Amino acid sequence: MLKSLQVITLGCSKNIVDTEHLLAQIQNDFQIFPENYRGKSDFLLINTCGFIGDAKEESIRVILEAAERKKMGDVGKLVVFGCLSQRYSDSLPELIPEVDAWYGAREFAPIVRGLTGRKIPEMFSTRYRYSTPKGVGYAYLKISEGCNRRCSYCAIPFIRGNHKSVPMEQLVAEAGHLAQNGVKELILIAQDTTYYGMDLYHRRAIAELVEKLSKVEGIEWIRIHYSYPADFPEDLLDQMAGNPKVCKYMDIPLQHVADVVLDNMHRHVDGAWTRELISRMRKRVPGIAIRTTMIVGFPGEGEKEFEELLDFIKEAKFERLGAFRYSEEEGTFGAENFEDNIGDEEKQSRYDRLMSVQNSISLECNESRVGTVEKVIVDAVSDGALVCRSQYESPEVDGEIFVRYEPECFGGQPAESFVGQFLQVKITGAEDYDLHAELYK
User: Fold this and answer.
1) Which of 409, 317, 404, 321 is nearest to 364 (CA)?
2) Residue 109: which of 98, 121, 97, 99 has the closest Cα?
3) Are 201 and 232 in contact (CB under 8 A)?
4) Which residue, 87, 9, 97, is CA-closest to 47?
5) DSSP state, residue 228
6) In the prediction, which pLDDT does 134 show?
7) What share of the chain is helix, strand, coil (3-state, %, to 5)?
8) Radius of gyration of the chain (CA)
9) What whole-number distance in Å separates Cα of residue 322 and Cα of residue 313?
10) Each residue of 78-105: pLDDT tens digit?
11) Which of 56, 188, 230, 436 could crosslink 268 through cysteines, CB 3.0-4.6 Å?
12) Rounded percentage of the chain residues whose pLDDT exceeds 70
């Protein structure tokens, strides 16, 4: 009889992919239980996040809760891996002795060996999609690991190491495996997707990779996340403009626009470059939806620099924008060399002002889509509506399109049968972030 294993994954989509790759190597060794399982299991495996303070606190809380379950006899062995244990490998074993084994974030082989006694191949492309509801048509595809950038606020390089691209043939094989299992949309992720290929092919090869992936049978959409503005590979814009399978959607965290702040952040661009890059994207890919993130309250951001950021947001009219309040991360250049002298109250005020501006822009963008007919993919069913996205929305981070489900309009088929399928809909209403639509015939 197989031993049982429950897995919990915290943090970002990159961690989800890591867990799915790992589980693919041990799925024949264990009966695998989902995250919400609360019965007894022989093993509990936790993939942690250690990027920022809130994420670290959540990881510690989940580990401590698991330790309590172990004391109660609901868990046999408690195993922890991922970013938190990579970052604090020296201190965590002593602080939480209830954990039976700690592993880092860079290699799966030691984890598989510890759980099963077996070795695994150096490269593998199969996935065990434990976290995705049955029928959902999208999947994340991690194209590289680590980062060669040294942004002064970021701990990722010393957690995940230097940039390491996954070979194209392996990614194409993985995409084929996902397509055979019903995936229609690939969301390309990495710490820096636009650096892809520099280590393996000595060139930025993201556009070439996208073209190869678009030829995989069954894949209809390809979406790109986590692009970096410096040395942006503009042949990627050619793919976006000319390849019908590439979503006209660009996720590019800009972080700021004021020169002094960008310099302190070690972003290797200035405000003029940033403005010009956004302008070129708009011109070369008409209709593109741009998603970005900004950091407020970073050292060097006075009121003048913050007002410049607000003006830029009003000018650029990003379809999607999120923001973070700066917090020091130990070990980073910023924490060791800059004084975090902007108070929490002021950071919150700037955050609120920025998001108020963005809310108005988002509503304006959404209202401009009312009356248009768009292709959408169905992700879920909720409260009598199909929860959908167009090429302009990414799952989990952007708004959604709610399509009224009326059985007579859908041929009497149950709503759940449309999950993972594409539909043509007409946009009928707009809110700040979400849209409403009806089936278009």
Assistant:
1) 317
2) 121
3) no
4) 9
5) -
6) 66
7) 35, 25, 40
8) 22
9) 11
10) 999 988 888 888 888 889 999 999 998 8
11) 230
12) 98
